[in-house]
Design goal:
The chain is an alpha/beta fold. Helix content is 34%, strand content 15%. The protein has a 6-stranded parallel β-sheet with strand order 2-1-3-4-5-6, with helices on both faces.
Length: 231
């Protein structure tokens, strides 16, 4: 990450998943990175994306431990309580929809709320794993109601946060990242493994692309190749 100041600190949320693990490993190979802090449910007992108090308690100590120049939130879920994405409107269930909103939008919003104060006052990047299906403009196939809605909702949160933070730190960058179709537990039930990227391949490309991003009055929404995705 040549665009960040020397000896920068990085924080990976959801570092136990395939992509989060790959992010942590890649950043540890960066000679410019002083420290990679990994955060997941195993490293922080009691942390739950569906519990506001647990999120606040889990991140409160970070505010006193120095700033981060790179924060990556790699959390998210496509299958909720054993149920995959809905193929039709009639398959939508309120409880499952609510859980998806918590895991993919409300929880990450509260994480964002607690971590923005820890960002560096110089150039910094807050990246959140997103999905192309979170694009309202790019929706050509329909279906996947709760997952699409939860991802689109967080995209709005990220855009709004970027606008607010730009007033105080014009060098801050916020980006929603589409990692491609990665061979992982999340994608396994829905795609042919032969058509996927490894987590390592995806992460190397995503890091290269976010390193090139310029500050804007708002958030970026890009895929792992650096191509812009319509909101």
């Amino acid at each position: 990450m040549d665009s960040l100041q020397p000896n920068y600190r990085a924080l990976i949320i959801g570092s136990s998943g395939a992509i989060g693990t790959a992010f942590a490993a890649a950043l540890r190979q960066d000679p410019n990175c002083l420290e990679v802090v990994e955060f997941n449910r195993s490293s922080s007992a009691g942390f739950e994306l569906t519990n506001e108090l647990s999120i606040e308690q889990s991140f409160v100590h970070f505010k006193d431990e120095g700033s981060f120049s790179l924060i990556i939130d790699a959390t998210g879920a496509l299958t909720i309580n054993g149920k995959g994405p809905e193929k039709s409107l009639q398959a939508v269930m309120g409880a499952t929809f609510n859980e998806s909103l918590w895991i993919n939008c409300i929880g990450p919003t509260l994480v964002l709320k607690n971590l923005v104060p820890t960002l560096s006052k110089k150039r910094c990047i807050y990246a959140k794993l997103s999905a192309r299906v979170g694009s309202i403009t790019d929706n050509k196939l329909g279906g996947w109601y709760s997952y699409r809605a939860s991802k689109a909702a967080f995209n709005m949160v990220l855009q709004t946060t970027a606008i607010e933070c730009h007033r105080k730190n014009p060098e801050a960058i916020f980006v929603a990242l589409q990692p491609g179709t990665v061979d992982s537990k999340l994608s396994a039930p829905f795609v042919d493994a032969s058509k996927t990227l490894t987590a390592e391949e995806s992460v190397i490309q995503m890091l290269a692309q976010i390193d090139k991003l310029l500050p804007i009055h708002g958030a970026h929404f890009i895929d792992y190749k650096g191509e812009a995705i319509a909101w």
